[in-house]
Amino acid sequence: MSDCFVDYYKILDCERTSNYDELKKNYQRLALLFHPDKKDSSAGDEKFLLIQKAWSVLRDPESRKQYDALLVCHEHSNLLLYETIPLSDMTFDIADGAYTYPCRCSGIYLLETCDAIPPTVVVGCNECSFSIQVNIPC
Fold first, then answer.
1. Among 25, 37, 67, 125, which residue carries the largest CB count within 10 Å?
2. Could you tell me the CATH superfamily of domain 79-135?
3. Which residues of 11-45 are buried (b: 16+ CB within 10 A; e: fewer)?
4. Each residue of 60-77: pLDDT tens digit?
5. Where along the chain do its domains lie?
6. Model pTM?
7. 94-99 long-range CB contacts below 8 Å, 24 or more apart?
């Protein structure tokens, strides 16, 4: 991941699969631990502000969903991007409920459909290290 990108789950010492109650419990524990009134240095202030920011994003289901999509894109940024295509270039398979696109290595890119697909998705090939960026119309 990039140095400038902050993983809010790590800030709150949680897994990405953590539910709301787990996130809240860790937030409260860390907020008490790093509260500026309990620390002597300004380093604690910065950590506290980061904890506050992480909680403000992850506590709201909609902002968490957007953040999760951003996190996935960031994780895939180290992959070799082969090309950018519109969703309309992919083939929809009704039986699987997924979109596919052929890779030049004879593998396939598979994009499973779900309720919340962000406007841009990076999909890796099932056979090689190439990935494609799929632009999805709103």
1. 125
2. DPH Zinc finger (3.10.660.10)
3. bbebeeebeeeebbebbeebeeebeeeeeeeeebe
4. 998 888 888 777 766 666
5. 8-73, 79-135
6. 0.55
7. 99/134
